[in-house]
């Protein structure tokens, strides 16, 4: 049976659940909420104290205790607001931190094809702009219940002061609520659209920066800038629609508040004239009404910002819902022990079609490679050589057929254990943004000694190049201190030399080497092949004519396999390939 496509291989990942995220630190959250409640109580007490001051003033009573209580309420309210705000910010920062770590970790574990399809820039936007939007949810999620509580408590006190005026207030606020709910419904879709547009622009910009040398060489800055400007224009247009919707919220708030104010003043004035309401009570009522305004605003704008946070959460969950490449059962599985004497790699009737490609890249290929020695995979461009290597390292999985590594089907190997057995030198000779030392030790389970590092650098002829770097082996690579193409290639080979892997895969390893280094490369590969299985994909046949085994691929099928002289003699496509390279026959 063929492997399942990588897309469905992994377990369903855990989604971002806001309630769980908010309650991971219940102690601090409770503290923040209690302090915020204290601040709310202080704010609620102030108008009642004003009413008391007016009454005491009219009755010629001492105002000292009233003023002292007002000071305590004001200062206490300010302090508790500050401390609860800080505690909530802390909870928000921790949530964003956890979320970023989870998203980055998950993105690194996605299948290569899925990462390419998503786009690196768009993925990066999830930990930048989406995470920031999500962070504000903490504040809002706690502000909203408090604002609702403030409004409810205020309304209750208002009912106690004068129920008729309260009814007038509630009816006016109801008009406002209907308007705001209608706006908010449309706002969430708009925010999702904005975040997707941010992702698209980040994706194109990242891709352009990666291709900057080519863009400059072909004077394509205007072309690239035009495409970026078109993305920016799409983002501007959708953000503008969002801004229009957003601007309607304060407009609705102002309208609702003014409506309430006018209605209360007219009704209150009439009740005052009729003697149904005292001046002190009316003043307190008006203060409460004014105090309700910020809480109602918090409620309305908070729901708006919550929509942004929810849209960001959805985008993060979309990413977390992508299955990682490892199998669900990998976690509980022990790695098989390599079978003594079994071939390093066996392909049995393996076919593979790239996602989105019409034709199969490989059609039922079968071959095996010995436990030690050099195997060369050759063939014209597009024959399927790189696809073959990708299948061995399980970057992709066969559409049909099976592959075994060191005597076990690749499906029986936990992914990590399989890759620990294989060193892979890719076409780009990729170096991480890390020191030369860290780059060299990527494939190792134990730390390499200085002696081992020096021997590997010497074997690939890099000793002097690394010594010339500002901090030698401890120089961070990738920014100011980058290496040339050939040096990167030799670093990648030294990394393979230092790894513990029994199988070494080399994709196009000599394209950037000069004559001297190519000879050195051949010597290193021969050394490697003495104790490991080395599988090389190469166009330059001069480097593989000493291979113990050559597999000739054409159009996704193995047309022949054998050693160099045998293939030269009996395989016409191989002879033609060799002739096209003008390599001496012997
Ligand atoms: N990511 C991909 N999506 C779709 N098709 C792909 C992808 N990668 C390779 N192919 C197609 O699969 C076929 C085999 O490609 P592969 O890269 O394995 O060939 P190759 O022999 O290594 O070529 P080259 O020597 O030019 O690097 C080609 O027809 C190629 O167009």
UniProtKB/TrEMBL annotation:
Its main location: membrane. It comes from the Bacteria. Keywords: ATP-binding, Membrane, Nucleotide-binding, Transmembrane, Transmembrane helix. InterPro entries: AAA+_ATPase, ABC1_TM_dom, ABC1_TM_sf, ABC_transporter-like_ATP-bd, ABC_transporter-like_CS, P-loop_NTPase, Type_1_exporter. SUPFAM superfamilies: ABC transporter transmembrane region, P-loop containing nucleoside triphosphate hydrolases. The keyword Transmembrane applies. GO terms for molecular function: ABC-type oligopeptide transporter activity; ATP binding; ATP hydrolysis activity. Residues 32-308 form the ABC transmembrane type-1 domain. Residues 345-580 form the ABC transporter domain. One of its GO terms (cellular component) is plasma membrane. It is a multi-pass membrane protein. The keyword Nucleotide-binding applies. The chain crosses the membrane at residues 27-47, 67-89, 144-161, 167-184, 245-266, 272-290. It is found in: Cell membrane. This is ABC transporter ATP-binding protein. It comes from Kitasatospora indigofera.
């Amino acid at each position: 049976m063929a492997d399942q496509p990588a897309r469905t291989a992994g377990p369903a990942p855990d989604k971002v659940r806001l309630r769980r995220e908010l309650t991971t630190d219940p102690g601090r959250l409770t503290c923040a909420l209690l302090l915020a409640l204290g601040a709310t109580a202080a704010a609620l007490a102030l108008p009642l104290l004003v009413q008391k001051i007016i009454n005491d003033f009219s009755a010629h009573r001492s105002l000292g205790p009233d003023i002292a209580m007002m000071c305590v309420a004001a200062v206490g309210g300010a302090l508790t607001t500050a401390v609860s705000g800080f505690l909530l910010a802390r909870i928000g920062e921790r949530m964003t931190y956890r979320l970023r770590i989870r998203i980055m970790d998950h993105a690194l574990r996605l299948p290569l094809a899925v990462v390419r399809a998503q786009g690196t820039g768009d993925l990066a936007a999830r930990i930048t702009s989406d995470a920031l939007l999500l962070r504000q949810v903490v504040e809002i999620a706690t502000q909203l219940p408090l604002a609702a509580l403030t409004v409810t408590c205020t309304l209750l006190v208002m009912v106690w002061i004068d129920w008729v005026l309260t009814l007038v207030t509630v009816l006016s606020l109801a008009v406002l609520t209907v308007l705001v709910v209608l706006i908010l419904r449309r706002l969430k879709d708009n925010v999702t659209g904005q975040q997707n547009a941010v992702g698209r622009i980040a994706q194109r910009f990242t891709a352009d920066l990666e291709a900057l040398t080519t863009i400059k060489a072909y004077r394509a800055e205007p072309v690239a800038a035009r495409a970026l400007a078109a993305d920016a224009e799409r983002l501007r247009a959708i953000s503008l629609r969002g801004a229009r919707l957003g601007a309607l919220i304060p407009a609705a708030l102002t309208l609702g508040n003014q409506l309430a104010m006018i209605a209360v003043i007219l009704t209150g004035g009439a009740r005052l004239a009729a003697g149904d309401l005292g001046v002190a009570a009316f003043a307190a009522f008006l203060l409460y009404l004014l105090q309700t305004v910020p809480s109602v605003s918090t409620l309305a704008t908070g729901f708006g910002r919550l929509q942004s946070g929810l849209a960001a959460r959805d985008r993060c969950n979309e990413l977390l819902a992508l299955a990682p490449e490892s199998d669900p059962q990998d976690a509980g599985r022990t790695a098989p022990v390599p079978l003594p004497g079994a071939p390093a790699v066996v392909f049995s009737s393996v076919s593979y079609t790239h996602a989105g490609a019409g034709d199969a890249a490989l059609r039922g290929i079968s071959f095996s490679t010995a436990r030690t020695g050099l195997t060369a995979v050759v063939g014209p461009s597009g024959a399927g050589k790189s696809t073959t290597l990708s299948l061995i390292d399980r970057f992709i999985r066969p559409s049909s057929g099976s592959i075994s590594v060191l005597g076990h089907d690749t499906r029986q190997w936990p992914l990590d254990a399989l890759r620990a057995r294989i060193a892979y030198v890719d076409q780009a000779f990729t170096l991480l943004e890390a020191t030369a030392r860290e780059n060299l030790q990527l494939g190792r389970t134990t730390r390499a000694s200085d002696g081992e590092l020096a021997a590997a650098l010497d074997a690939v002829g890099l000793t002097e190049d690394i010594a010339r770097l500002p901090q030698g082996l401890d120089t961070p690579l990738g920014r100011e201190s980058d290496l040339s193409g050939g040096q990167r290639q030799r670093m990648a080979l030294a990394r393979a030399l230092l790894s513990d892997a029994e199988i070494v895969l080399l994709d196009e390893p000599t394209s950037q080497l000069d004559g001297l280094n190519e000879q050195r490369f051949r010597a290193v590969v021969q050394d490697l092949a003495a104790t490991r299985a080395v599988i090389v994909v190469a166009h330059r046949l001069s480097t593989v004519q000493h291979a113990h085994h050559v597999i000739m691929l054409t159009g996704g099928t193995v047309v022949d396999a054998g050693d160099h002289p045998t293939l030269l003699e009996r395989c016409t496509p191989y002879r033609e390939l060799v002739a096209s390279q003008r390599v001496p026959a012997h």
